[in-house]
Each structure stands twice: as structure tokens, then as C-alpha cells.
Amino acid sequence: MSLTSNGCVRRERGRIVRLEVENFKSYKGRQYVGPFKDFTAVVGPNGSGKSNLMDAISFVLGVQTDQLRGRLVELLYRGLDSNGEVLQSKSGYVKLVFLDPDGVEIQFSRKIVPSGSGPDASYQSQYRIDERLVGRDAYVGKMKQYGVLVKARNFLVFQGDIESVAQMNPSALTTLVEQISGSVELAREYEELKEDVERADNEVRRHHVQKKTINVEKRQVKEQKTQAEQHLALEAELKDCKIMYFQWLAYHADKDITSENEGIEKMREALREVARSQRISEDLLSDLQGKHKEKMDLHMALEQDIRKKERDAERKSPEGTRVHEELKRFKKKFASSKKELHDMLTKRGEQEAHVHSILEELQKVKKLRSELEEVIRKEEEEGKRLSQDDLKEYRRIKTKVSKKTSTLSQHMQGLQCQLSATQDVISRKKDAMGQLEAQNEVAKEQREQNVKKIEEMTATIAGLRTDKKALSTKRGHLSETNRRTDTRRDFCLKKIADLEERINDARVSRIETRRERELLQSLEKLKDAFPGVYGRITDLGKVMQKEHNMAISVAMMKDMDSVVVDTLETGQRCIEFLKRNQLQSITFLPLAGMDVRPLDESLRQLGGTSKLAIDLLEFDRAHVKAFMLALGSTVVCSTLDEAAEVSARHRHRIKVVAMDGTLLDVKGSLTGGHTDKIAARAAQWNEQEVEAWQKELDKHQEELREMAPAREGRQEEQRISIEVENLGRRIRRVEEDIRTCEARLRDKDAEIDLNKKDLEKIRGELPALEKEIEEKQQEIDSVKDQIDKVADRKFADFSRRIGVESYREYEEGHVQRADELSKQKAELSTKEGQLSNQIDYEKSIEWDVPIENLQQKTGRCQKNIAELTKKNEEIEAAKEQILKELEEDRNKLAELKREYEEVMVEIREAKKITQKHHAIGRKMKRDLDNRVAGMEDLKSKREDVVKTASMQLGEEFTPDASCLKRHHTATESEEARERMDKELTTRIDDLNIRLQKTAPNLKAFERYNQVLEQEQGQQSALEKARRAAAEVSQKFHNIHNQRYDLFMEAFNHIDSEINEIYSSLTKSDVHPNGGSANLYLENSKTPFLHGIKFTPIPPGKRYRQVEQLSGGEKTVAALALLFSIHSFHPSPFFVLDEIDATLDASNVSKVVRYIWERTQEGSFQSIVISLKDVFFSWADSLVGVTSDRTGSSKSFTADLGQYPMD
Question: What are the strands, taking DSSP E only, across 1055-1180?
């Protein structure tokens, strides 16, 4: 208890703290909602997920799925992901954190999980309290401790509940009160006890009527008893005569039984001797079978060892194959590397030879240039042919000209040097172009080789992948086939073992007698001869439950071997056939013309375990007459006590059989016990089932024989797996080679592109260089013309003096020669430069690193080849050792098999001896059984004598030969017995004739006693029925009072609260007292079976029916009713969904004020979904709900406690 801010006394009842939601309805992923205050309003636009939040609270509080607008799978989040794909959650949960009155947080969670792993799996709920998995009952029970009643939903008002409550009729309102009061839980027991009371009253009336009927019968029997007393004297004489006759019959029966017992005892002694011999042979057979088992175990162990070694050998095979493949690959790689190294060394040698030849050629060019320079020098010296004076003059003038034109000569020489340098550049560029074009050709050729190699390897890998896919598919099919075959083989073996066990059990319990075998043989002959023979009655029907076999067999008795035929004529022809072939007699049941008594249908309503015997059988309706004749209205009961009760209830007018075979016949006699003969006859019902089992067993054995051995399929699957692995390795190697070739191809493409760019660059530079040469040549010619003009002026006198037109005529011969020599010198210089460049290029090619890499690669290959060769030899040696051990084990297995076969021969001989003893024993047992059956017939005959005597004498008959005279016991021969029998029966017949003339009712005494017993029994039954009726009536009265008290406690509380609540919700300034509301019971004695009338009277109005109120008035009245009902067993919290939808602002203010006051008092915590600001402005906190673009709901919480209310 505590005080609120407004001074109210606050009662702490616990409250909801927060909510955790994951993938529930429109809430995607994990989201936390809350915290929830005493008065929390949930707001948001339509379709944002507000009602889904209420469904989440209802779901976690245990409300059934059918009340939450969808199945479990429909409560899981379903929306769109970031890619626009439909996203269906596989699981989700809602967790509610509850703070109890002691301040302890308790977590209630309910999770939706699939019940299986398949796509069509259904869904189920898991309940947890504080993360501990519990059952639904414990979960609901825990919440009930805090006042949360899941069944009554005292914490919840759905969106349509207000309208439904407002429209409730009196009966529906009664149901609502029953749910909240808990009296509905007693409704079923109440109705059951009410029916029990009615049944008990009917039983009392029935016993009373039966008692009246017995009284009438008692008067009639008493009159007959008086008439019978007059003949007692004559009856006494007849009785003495009958006693003498029956004592005589019993005496001779005892004598015959004694004689037969002596013979049976001798046969039993002989049978025991045979049994001893049989045990000896069985012991021998057991020893041999033990020895056989020992050999079999050794055989199986050796076979397992052989299979293990075979598997080891098989495992070595793929490993050896893999090593062999690796060895081949490395050898191939070694050969390739070796060839590549040889080619590279050859190329290097060729290059060295080529460089040497270039050097030699370069030396020759240098030598030629030196010789040419020497020639030039000598010719220049030979130019001294002029006289010394002329030569001096020439040199003087030449010197003067040189001085005069020194500037121009230097300029021309510079131009010539530039021209020569430019020509050298062009020459080198052209040489470079030639080299680039040659390199491009080589690169293109290598590129084409790589492309061709890639195409070949691509085709190869496509073929390998096709082969691998085909083998993988084949392996998959073979694996699936092997799996199905193994599954089917296991199933067949299990089924065969089960069927053999069933058949053996059935055969053990089924012992055919000679008469039965003859009967079956005769029946087969009759079926072949006459088409109207259907078979034995046991062959035409089937007992639905084996536990009834014994009871049905006893109920049918001798009719079990009766044969059903179509007509009486067919039966007569069958009898003639049996007589003609001297076959044993058979009872025939002709369907046509058979007059059978109809079944007593009332016997099907006996109750308990009692059932009509004919209802326990399955048969063709065409044969129903035969089964009705054999069974009639026989009743089968589970126990002897129930059978005796049923027989007594029907005054022994029906035959009743207990499931253990005990029979109560219509005379009231009791027959029971156990004999092998009855058990064997009961086993006849299983013959059809045994035949079906045998057919099914043959079918499974044939299927097992047709199945291929499991080992062959596994070996084939393993072989294919090895091939698939080998293909996979080959594919990976080829793919690696393809990637290497593709890398080389990319390198060559880059090299070609680079060379092309260099060529284009050089081609772009050549025109400018050529133009530059042309310009330089023109400039040189211009300068030369200027020098020539100066020289001509200076050498004019000299030329005339030496007799030449111009001094150049003298120099032309020498100059032309000099030009030729200069040209040759330039060519030799150019060639020398080309050869030098070519030598530099050839020397720039790196050979040592690639050759060293190839040598290392070749060395690694040699090392790997050596290691793999060694490993291969080791594997082959291990495999050879395993094969050798396998050969030894197989020899041992052959020897063990020979020993096993010898033991099997001994076992077969021992089995023959054992079977022979069994056959002798069975024959002696059959003979003994036949003799015992004969003795049983004698005993039965003696029992029939005693029973007949007891029945005819009306008292228990005890054989006593002392009353017989000598001439009675002296009848040893059959003839003497027949004479004595005739004498005694004649005397009895005479007395009977004399008694029949008086026609008394000889059973009057017995019947009178029976009527007296029935009267006493009926009186006891009547008293018992009256006591039972009183007891049931008392129970009914107690449960009625209990239900009444629970109902009225709730009704009185609700009735006392509703007027105050309704007045609070309807009072205003105009009507300060508000309206009034009351509840009225339509029936005060049994209020829970009748309606409750709800009469709200709004302020200022007269009384009207609820249906005649306005929508707002109905809503306020319904809210008042709900609040008053909630106050009976108040929940610590109240969840309301848009209860203000039909209210105007005035009524909303009244309702929200009422809720606010109750939450401040601590009566309950309120969580309300509302769209009206008048309502949610009163709340302590707001929970806003919205949705994003994908439709997923999001929540936001605002604490309004920091803002004071206006």
C-alpha cells in the first residue's frame, strides 16, 4: 500500500514493465516496447500495428490462437527484405516482463517454433518462465497466481468486445459470468451428475415394475406347487428306481475308467522312455549346434577380417592409382621441363654462335673501314702530282680560301655532322622497327600456339567434365540404388524374422488331430466335387481380436467343424459322397432354407465389456445365417463375474461365455477349465492369418534372393568414386595449365601491344627526321655554293695557269673518288652500328635465370619422381603383403568351411535322429491323446450320468455301488449290460407313464424357490437402486450448491459494483448522480442455466431495453459491465483496444477519468489503444506505433509524467 500524488491510497498488484517482440505479425526482428506506466496509451495511424501490439500481449499471456486473427504460422512476420523479396520468418516470440507486488521481475515468454524440419512442418508454441521451459498448464497457473485468468480473459478487451458485450443476450451474459466466476468448470460434472440422477430414478422405477411382475408369477407357481405335492409318493418310487439305474450306470463307467487309466499309464511310461531318448539326442544336437555356432563365429570373424583386408587392399588401390597418376604427371612434367631446358640451351648455343658470327662480321667491317681509311689517306697523298711550286700555290690559295670560308666551312661541317647524326638516328630507328616487327612475329606465333593449346585443353576439360558428370550421376544413382537395396534388404530380413517367429508360435499352439486332418482332406475333396461347398465356418470368418478366440470357440462348440453349403440339396449330395467313399461324418449348414432365430438386439446395449459373439467376427454377409445358427444370441464378457451377472440378469435365458472359455448355458450350468483340445480348436481361427503370413514370408524370401549382393554394389560405387576423384584431379591440373597459358597469352598480348605502340611511335618520328635531313641537305648545298663561289674567284688565275677550266676539275677526280670512298665509309659505319646494336640486343637477352629456374624445376621433378616411385613401391609392397595375407585367410576360410560342413553333416544326422524321436514321440503322443480323449469321453459320459441323475433327481447325485445288488454288478458282458439296462429303463418308463397321466408340473417346487430367490434379489436390487439414486442425488445436490455459490458470489459482486461504476461513468454537472444499472436473474434457483438481464438507465431517461439505447450509451453500459466483471477477480493490468471508437468527447472524458482514477488507486494498470487526444492526454506515457516502407512496425515511447496535467 502507498499514497499517490493526489493523496489516494494505492494498492500494489503488480504491473507490466516492458515487452520484447521478435518477428511477430508486423514487427520485424527484435524490438523492445515500453516501459509501460500505470496508464499507458498506444497511438499511431491506422494499419501501423497497434492492434498487433495488443495481439502480442494477448499471445504472450496464453490466449488461444483462434482468438488472435490467425493460425500460428500467420502470427509470424511476413514482409519484404531490402531487395524486395518476400521474407517469411521461421520463428518468433513475445516476452513480457512483469513486476510482481514484491518488486521482483518475472519474465513470461511464448515462442512460435516449427515442429519439424520439412517445408510443410506445422508450428507449435513453447512457454517459458524466466527462460525456463514449462508446460502450458504451469504457465497459465503461474499467471493465475497474480490474478490473470487466461480462460476468462479478465485482462483483455478486444476491439469488438465492447460491441459484442453491448449486444449480449441474457444467456450470453450468464456464460460470461460463469467464465469469470469459475463455475463453468463445474458445468460438465453438473450435467453428467444430472444425467446420472435421471438414470438412477429410471433404474428405481424399472426395479419396482419388475418386483410387481415377480409377485404375480409367485401366486401362479404356488398353485402349481400345491398340485405337485399330491404326486410325491409316486415320484419317490420313481426316484428310487432312477437312483438304482444311475448307480448302475456310474458303477460300470467307473470300472471302464479304471481299466482305461491303467492302459494310459503304460503308454505314458513308454512315452517318457521315448522322451529320455529324445532329450539325449537333443543334447547331442545342442552340443553340435554349439560347435556349429563356434565354427560359424570363427567363420564370420575370418570373413570380417578378409573383408577388412579387402577394403584395405581396395583403399590401397585408389591410393596407388593416385600415386601412379602423380608419378606419371611428374614424369611428364620432367620430360617437358627437360625438353624445354634442352631447347633453351640449344637456343642459347645458337644465339652464342650467332653473336660470334656477328662479332666476326663486325671485325671484318672494322677491318674494311680501316683499309678504306688507309686507301683514302694514300690517295690524298697521291694527290701531290703537281709541281712543288704549283702545289705550294694550290695550298696557299687553298689556305686563303679556307681562311676566307672558314666560317662557312665550319657551318657546313656542323650541318654535315647534324645530317650524319640524323641519318644515324633514322638508321637505328629502322633497325629497331625491324627488331620489333621480328619480336611481334615471334610473339604472335607463340600467342597462336597458346590459343591453340587453350582450345585443345578447353575441349579436353569439357570432355573430362562430361565424363565426370556422367560418372557422378551414375554414382548418385548407384548410391541411391544401394541405399534403397540396403533399406529393403534390412526390411525383408526383419520382416522374415518376425514372420517366422509368428508362424512358429502359431504352429506350436496349433496341434492337429488325426480327425482334423481327415476332415480337411475330406473338405478339399468336397470342394473339388461340388461348387456349392464354401468351407468350414472357421474358414469363412475371422475373430477381430485374438483375445476372443477361446470364447468364440467355446460358444460355437461342435459347429466349429460344420461346413457351410449353399443349399440342402448340396448337403445331401455331400453326405452321399462321404458314405460312398467311407469318409468320416460332417455336419452341413445349408444357407438356403435355413431357419434361424433373429438376434436379440437389446443384448447389444448391455454395457460394460459385454458384446454379442457374432459382433466379434468379420465375415461375408452372405454367410450370416451360418454364424447366426452357430452362435445365436451368445454374449461374450471379459470376466466370469461379469458373465455371471449378465446370465443372472436375463434369468439364464441366454448363453454367456467369458474370455477364458468358461460357459454359462441357458440352463444355468457352469462349464470351464483348460484342455489342449479346446486351445487347439481356438487356434483354428488363426489358420487364415498363418497362411497369409506364409505367403508374405515366401514373397520376402524370394525378393531377398533376387537382390544383388551388397558387396558388389558397394565395390562398383567405390570404383566409380575413384574414377570421379581421378577425373577431378585431372580437371584441376588442366584448369591450372589453362590458367598458366592464359597468363602467358595475356603477357604476349601485352608485349604485342607494347611493340605496336613502339612501332607506331617510331613510324610517327621518321617523317620528321627525313624532312630534317632534306632541310639539312639543302642548307649544306647552299653553303657549299657560297664556298665554291669564293674558291672560284681565288683559283681563277691558278686554274688558267695549270690549264684547267676550274680547279674543281682537278679536284673532281679526287673528290668523286673521295665521295665514293666516303659513301663506302658511311655504309661501313652504318653496318658497324647495326652489328653493334644487334650484338647489344642479343646480349640483353637473359638466359641464365630461366635456365637456372628450369634446372631447379627439373631437379624438383626428379626429387618428386624419386619420392613417388619409392611411395609407389611401398604401396605395392603393402598391397602385396595384404594380398598374401588374404590368400592365407582364404585358405583358412576354406579349411574352416570344410570343418563347418562336416559339423553340418553331423548336425543333419543328429537332426534326423532327433526328428525320428520327435516323430515317434508325436505318434505316441497322438495315440495317447486319442486314448486320453477316449477316457475323457468316458469321464464325460460318467459326468453326463451324474449330471443327468442330478437333473432328473433334483438333487446332487453321488455314485455309491453299495446300494447295488449282486445281479446288478455281475453284468460284465455287453449283452448282459444291455439286458439290465432294458430292465431298469422299462421300469422307469412305466412309472413315468403313470406320472404323465396326472400331468403335474414337476418343476413347480424348483420354480417356486427360484421365484422366491428372484423376489429377494429384486428387493435387494430395488434397495440398491434406491441407495444409488440417493447417493447420486446427494452428489448432484453438492455440485449444484458449489456451482450456485461460485456463480452467485460473482453475480452479487458484479451486481453490487455495476451501479456505482455506471453512475461514475455517466454523472455530469447536469446529472451529478449519474445513471443507474442493475442485473436481474431470470431464475434464482438455477441462475447458471438461465439468463441475466442487464438494465442500464442513462441519467435523465426512463427505463428502456439495451437494444433501444444509442451507440454511445450502449458502449458506456458495456464498459461499466466489463469494469464491474473485472473487479470480481481483478487482473493487475487491463488491456483495452479502441474502446472509445463510438464515444463522443464527453463520454470519452468520463471513461478516461474513471480509468485514470483506478490506475492512480492501483486497482489495475491500464494499457489502452486510442486515436483520440481527449483519451491519451490523460496517460502517464505514450507508445507510438508506426510502420516503415517495408510495412514493418516500429514503436517509440514517451514519458508524460514530467508534464503536469492541465
Answer: 1076-1081, 1092-1097, 1133-1137, 1165-1169
Quickly count: other Cβ atoms within 10 Å of residue 1158's Cβ: 23
Residue with cell 493487475: 1132
Is 0.90 surpassed by the pTM of this model? no
Q: At 565, list the grid cell.
A: 453349403
Is residue 1194 pLDDT above 80, yes or no?
yes
- Distance, CA of 95 to CA of 81 (rounded, Å): 24
Read off the C-alpha cell for 960.
455309491
778: CB partners within 8 A, 6+ apart: none
Q: State the residue for C-alpha cell 647495326.
A: 834
Instruction: Compute φ and ψ for 619, nearest 5 degrees.
Output: -160, 165
Burial class (CB in 10 A: 0-12, 13-18, 19+), 680: middle
Judge whether residue 322 has pLDDT over 70.
Answer: no
CA dist 705 → 306, 488, 489, 491, 695 (Å): 24, 12, 10, 14, 15
| Residue 50 contacts residue 43 (beta carbons within 8 Å) | yes
Angle (CA) 421-427-432 rounded to 5° is 125
d(CA 435, CA 442): 11
What does residue 683 show for φ and ψ, rounded to 5 degrees? -70, -15
- Which grid cell sits at 1110? 444509442
pLDDT one-digit tens code per residue, 708-762: 555 566 667 777 777 778 778 878 887 888 888 888 878 878 888 887 888 888 8
Instruction: List, for residues 260-313, the tens digit of each pLDDT value.
Output: 788 778 877 887 787 787 778 777 777 776 776 676 667 677 667 766 766 666
pLDDT in tens, 487-541: 777 787 777 777 766 665 554 444 445 566 677 778 788 887 888 888 887 778 8
CA pair distance 206, 214, nearest whole angstrom = 13
Give the Cα separation of 1082 and 170 in Å (integer).
Answer: 8
Residue entry with cell 472524458: 1149
H/E segment holding residue 134: strand 132-134
∠ CA 98-101-103, rounded to 5°: 70
Q: What angle do CA 324, 325, 331 make, to 5 degrees?
A: 85
The answer to whether the CB of 563 falls within 8 A of the CB of 533 is yes
Half-sphere exposure of 318 (CA within 13 A, CB side): 18
**Which residues are CB-neighbours of 363 under 8 A, at least 6 positions away?**
none
C-alpha span between 828 and 365 (Å, rounded) = 6
Question: What number of CA atoms fall less than 13 Å from residue 802's CA on the CB side?
Answer: 21
* DSSP annotation string for 1151-1182: HHHHHHHHHHHTS-EEEEE---HHHHTT-SEE
pLDDT at 159: 63
Contact 1183, 1196 (CB under 8 A): yes
